[in-house]
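Tutorial handout. Part one gives the primary structure; part two gives the three-dimensional structure as tokens.
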Amino acid sequence: MTELLYLGDLSCRITSSQNTVLYINPDKGKDYSRKADIILQTTEINKSLVQLHITTDQTKILNQDLLAVGNKLNHQDIQIERIGDDAYRISVDDKKILVCGKQDIIVDGKDDYAFVPILHTQISEEKMADLAKQIIPVHTSEVALFDYRVAIALSVENKLIIEPAMKIHLEEENHRNLKELENQLYPLLLDAAEKFHMTMICMNDGYAMAQMLVTKKDINPLGLVYGGISYNFADIVAGCTFYSAGGYGPTVSANYDYLR
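Part two.
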């Protein structure tokens, strides 16, 4: 299966069914445990310490200087085509993935996925929906790996929201949107706030920094607001613990303490 690991900001890793590893803009996030067969740098910053760590003598490195517009690179079972000044198309297994940049592009809309840098792109939301079957918002924050609020605010019906460190299989149908969050997460949060003592533990680099009691008034459909800071939560884990998408501030975990 074709696996996508979103690392945060503009960084991600794609692994083909034949185990070929492609990193796109390796820089942000934590999981760089696998060496790269291909590295694609779509920004002007073409090298980082992370890139040096994952590069071998056999790694193919592509950037704006090494692949001209209209040209393609075929390496093992992955093809990369530069379709614009800052836009690329990746063909892996039976999937096609657009990697968009700042500039608007004209495509036929038949690609399976499109990575769109929300804060920098000139592509309108109306055009964005027609880029591909599913739109994956990236670069949603200037300071954090991901800002769930920006992704949720994107008025694109076919968006696919993926948080940093999340892995998905591209062969599977993936639909995660605001309606799903409202229908599933919000009632659970309200129910937990009413029935249990719910506390939020702020973590910073693995260390607990503070523990705060959460009440019903702190919860809204987008997650939880405490002290004027929004923490947006993605998934319920084991019915009792949920984790933030890592928006502004430290990583946050919230636990329901079943106290009598």
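Part three, for discussion. The helical segments are 49-54, 125-128, 148-153, 178-195. The two ends are 46 Å apart (CA to CA).
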